[in-house]
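Is pyridoxal-5'-phosphate placement plausible here? Inputs below.
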Amino acid sequence: MEMKSNPGIHTRVTHAGTCPDSEHGSVATPIYQTSTFKFQSAEEGARRISGEENGFIYSRLGNPTTATLESAISELEGGAGALATASGMAAVNLIYLTFLGSGMHIVGTDALYGSSRRIIELDYSRFGVDYDFIDTSDPELLEKTLKPNTALVYLESPANPTLKLADIRHCTELAHRAGALVAVDNTFMSPLLQRPLEFGADMVIHSLTKYINGHTDVIGGMVIFRDEQILEQARPVHVHSGGCMDPHQAWLVLRGLKTMALRVYKAQDNARQIAEFLETDGRVSRVFYPGLKSHPQYELAQSQMEGPGSMISFELNGGLEAGQKLMDRVSVATLAVSLGGYETLIQHPASMTHAAVPREERLSSGITDGLVRLAVGCEDAEDIIADLDQALR
Ligand SMILES: *Cc1c(COP(=O)(O)O)cnc(C)c1O
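Reply from A.M.:
I modeled the complex. Tokens:
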């Protein structure tokens, strides 16, 4: 049966990434758990290796299960193609390794995922890469920071854990005018709630570990490219640097992907209710959530995102001690880092993920002592709210 020309999002997610098995008619995509592929003849082997003929050769170069996942997510992001990687960080490094080099400059969001920033500052800098990490919610500051040698602008929106947004379209125009490519880490949103390629970005990065897999049981990553030419620049770097995804890992992510829309919308529904509860609660001084009118970039959220997502940060009146106490008293929310799973996770950046950052630096990037980060999951909203309420008490 032909799918109608403009299927709805639940239909598209359900059918994205189904690899037809002509031999047995398997409905689920088979796991091609093989490292290498047999050639029918010496001639065929020669044609495949020279690139004259399409077909699989060796699983680091490509694998049918992994390729199915790549085309599924590329389709949902509106890309020309994608490369799956062993982790979200392998995806970030694939971009860095492909597009940065000695004498080049990168501008990134200051609140970039910790490892994405650290590896530039401590490692790529050793190979002569110059960098600036700035508040990309301020396009004028971005314009001032761009240099003639800026090769890459790397945005994360919403940023973690402050949930500040970058205007992707505006930042992309400025970067392109300066001759730089733009990559956006879209992990917090999933392709359902924000599609940076539609705003002109050149690449989208996902930690598949989060919403796309959604079951807190796989690490994985992907880069989705706006056009073939940029993809083909990255492909050899991917093949030769070795950060490929395993077929079994790809199969698990495909399995998770099938329920992505159910999970993402349900968690978002919960998050809206929880954010409203927190905002009216006297024990909480501030709530950061792009779905609240009090968010300083509420208008931008409305135009750039299809929904506010399910990440919430909030500040407790009682500071560090109140934050730690809350962590020990919740029972529906699980005390753990990460996000995007079916279950609600809670963490306290000042005593946990950002404890190693000097306090002054932490405060200047908006991470106050009483800030709590909540990654809302798919439980009943009333139960999450009741749990937070008793723990706050
Ligand atoms: C988790 C995460 C990453 C890194 O992904 P891994 O799969 O853990 O390597 C990168 N960016 C964001 C926004 C993340 O949340």
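Short version: The mean pLDDT is 95.
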